[in-house]
Amino acid sequence: MLQNIRDNSQGWIAKTIIGVIVALLALTGVDAIFTSTSNSQDAAEVNGEAISTVELNQAVEMQRRQLLQQLGRDFDASLLDEELLRDAAMKGLIERTLLLQAATDANFEFSQQALDQVVLQTPEFLVDGKFDASRFDQVISQLGYSRLQFRQMLEEEMLIGQLRAGIANSGFVTDAEVAAFARLEKQTRDFATLTLKADSASVQLSDDDIKAYYEAKASEFMSPEQVVLEYVELNKDGFFDQVEVSDEELQSAYQNEIANLAEQRQAAHILIEVNDSLSDDQAKTKIEDVEKRLKQGDDFAALAKEFSADPGSAANGGDLGYAGPGVYDPAFEEALFSLNKGDVSPPVRSEFGWHLIKLLDVQAPEVPSFESLKEKLVRDLKARQVEQRFVEVTKQLEDSAFEASDLAQPAQELGLEVKVTEAFGRDGGEGLTANRQVIQAAFSAEVLEDGSNSAAIELDPNTVVVVRVKEHKKPERLALDQVAQSIREQLTQVRASEAAKANGEQLISTLRSGETSADQAGQGQTWQVTEAATRSHEGIEPVVLQELFRMPKPSDAGRPTFAGVSLNNGDFVVVKLNGVNEPQVALSEEDKTMYSRFLASRSGQQDFAAFRKKLEAEADIERF
Q: Which of 120, 229, 238, 343 sits CB 3.0–4.6 Å from 339 for a disulfide?
């Protein structure tokens, strides 16, 4: 426990801020922030602020990818409950919107310089321990962000982090609370136990006992409901041999491929940032002064180190590395791609301030030969045709299955084989019958009761099946002789456990009343004595330890208190509490600080959780 407290009491602010940044790549629903606002269909509205269906769908997809990554490749994606995913994603988006609104209302702010520092210190953007602009661009582009979008997202995350830290860090505890908690934490107990075994050999059961249990628990002795399915399977891979590509198509695809290759430009810049302390006019005047010095012959890299407000590039003479189109702010990019090698642009205004941009180098794209790309082009062209053909045949299969009274006709029309599964229940089976969508279809009213063919079920992007119930095995009551032995074993254990508990409770009653002394209670056994047991004492059954620290302190010396607890194996343990030890040990400053941080952190987390609930309770939330 002491180590747990120590682990949980380290720098709440640091955990909140740095933890958010380190986890940027795994934030659920974060990429839904920057979605098209042109979508007129909303999924929800929070205090008048809309959450679009696009945002919700992206958040759901992000959650799905995270879960599949955690569960591994072999996990069946169809087992994920779509409704649960959507509910969780919607809840997260609503909570995030409420927190952003609260942070805005509270006038929280996060400066551009502070954002720069967060970016520069994020481990995912470092190469050999230093910030790397190319690595930064690579990571955020994989996430689907431009630089501006990423900074906007990061700023919002920081605002929520400030709000969380502001509330959570306001938790406090008094010295008396710390002392009381420490006393409880350091408390030990002296006790002894007496175990009454669940004696199965002493239990006598008659045939009437077995039969009575069988009749009383009739619903427990039913054979499982099962179905046997017929199915036809459509696989995309089977269409590749059915399609061809011409030389003309290959040449056209090759030209399109190399036309998309873009040159990479190595830029350097000097940024004069527009912020609270520097107006637009002042920043423009300052960049013009820098421009004059350039024209007078000063070195661009030296001026960047001296004046640029971009800490990620200033130390490198303003060098931003190589990048292609679509990376920079539009105004910045337009100026950069209008320059010749070695040229410096006039002052350019971007979202962040005023820039001077220098084109250091241009890398022309390497054009691969037709032969080197031919295999890929053939595969890509065939894949497009196969995709179209697969969609068409899937629709044909679904239409044919809907109209047919069995699967023989659709199978014959499409040259497919009707296959049969093993019997399986509502918990599924193996292979195809482990798929959650197949199980749901098999036990649906339309397929199970009406005898219809199912709709087309997508097992994965390459495979579609249609299923039909061939045989329905309804639950039937199992014969007594089939279950008599299992009933005997179960009932014997139950009665042995009940007898041990009854004997134990009777013994506790006589011990408490004084009719039986502790020395007489052993019945041939001796009490197992433990001195100074802690709350995390090893070698003691957890349920016994839990019960021990629930027991009241003995009121008089020499008069122990008693309690009892049943173990999972049916045994009953009588617990005798002899004494409670509360050592009056003065806390060191280190321990006092540690306990205070732990308790304050716990209190702060509870406060923040209550704040979130309050926001939601008072909000005007409408789900569509």
A: 343
Nearest Cα residue to 591 out of 250, 183, 290, 109 = 183
pLDDT tens-digit profile of 331-374?
999 999 999 999 999 999 998 899 999 999 998 887 788 888 88
237/390 Cα distance (integer angstroms): 9
Show the CA angle centred on residue 159, arms to residues 155 and 161, nearest 5°. 115
Q: How far apart are CA 273 and CA 270, in angstroms?
A: 10
Nearest to 21 by CA among 173, 136, 106, 168: 136
Q: What is the mean pLDDT of the chain?
A: 85
Alpha carbon distance 615, 353 (integer Å): 36
Q: Is residue 255 part of a domain?
A: no
Contacts of 441 (CB under 8 A, 6+ apart): 447, 454, 455, 457, 467
Q: Which two tokens stand for residue 353?
A: 């301030």
DSSP-based three-state secondary structure for 199: coil
Q: Rounded CA gap, 400 and 406, in Å?
A: 10
At 99, which CATH number? 1.10.4030.10
The answer to whether 439 and 433 have CB atoms below 8 angstroms apart is yes
Q: Is the pLDDT of residue 530 over 90?
A: yes
Residue matched to tokens 């030890």: 581
Q: Mind spelling out the 3-state secondary structure of 87-126?
A: HHHHHHHHHHHHHHHHHHHCCCCCCHHHHHHHHHHCHHHE
Claim to verify: residue 133 and residue 201 sit in the same structural domain: no
Asked if residue 560 lies in contact with residue 554, where contact means CB atoms within 8 angstroms, the answer is: yes
Is the residue at 376 inside a domain? yes
- Total domains present in the chain: 4
| Residue 124: count of CB within 10 angstroms of its CB | 14
Distance of CA 238 to the CA centre of its chain: 36
Which has the closest alpha carbon to 99: 26, 24, 47, 150?
47
How far apart, in whole angstroms, are the C-alpha atoms of residue 338 and residue 350? 16
Strand 188-196, strand 572-581: pairing: antiparallel
Check pLDDT > 80 for residue 94: yes
**Cβ(268)–Cβ(318) below 8 Å:** yes
Domain that holds residue 277: 262-363
